[in-house]
Amino acid sequence: MSATTATAIYGASDFAGAFGAMVVMQVFKRKTVFIMGFALMSVLLTLSGVFLVYNDINMMFISLCCFVFCFASFVGAVLWLYVGECAVDTAMGLITLAF
C-alpha cells in the first residue's frame, strides 16, 4: 500500500468518525463518552503494538484506522464541547490556536 493510499484511508476513517460523533453525543452523556473513548483507544493502541511485534502490518494499519475513528467519534467531539462551554472569548481563540 502506498503512503498516499494509507493517508486517504486514515482521512476517510477520521471523516467517518466525525459523523459517528453526532450519533454518540446524542445517545451517551459526556462522562460515558470519555470513559468509553479512552478505553477503546487504549485497547486499539495495545492491539496495534501487538501486531507490530508480530510484524502483521495490515492488522496494525486496521487497528490504527479504528483508533482514529474512535478518537474522532468519542474524545475529539467532547473536547470541542468543553472548550466552548468553559472558555471565555479570549481563551477560546488561544485554545483553538493550540489545536
Give a short summary of the structure:
This protein is an all-alpha fold. The chain has four helices and no strands. It is globular and about 45 Å long.
Q: Helix fraction? A: over 70%
- Detail the poorly predicted runs: none
| Average residue-wise pLDDT | 84
Can you count the beta strands? 0
N-to-C span: 30 Å
Q: Major β-sheet, in short?
A: none
Oligomeric state: single chain
Succession of helices and strands: HHHH
Number of helices: 4
Rg to the nearest angstrom? 16 Å
Class per helix and strand makeup: mainly alpha
Domain module count: 1
C-alpha geometry: globular
The fraction of residues in strands falls at: under 5%
Layout of strands and helices, then pairs:
Layout: H1 3-27, H2 30-53, H3 57-86, H4 89-98
How does this structure look, described?
The chain has 4 helices and no strands. The chain has 99 residues and is an all-alpha fold. The protein has one domain. Helix 1 (3-27) packs across helix 3 (57-86) and helix 2 (30-53) packs antiparallel against helix 3. It is globular and about 45 Å long.
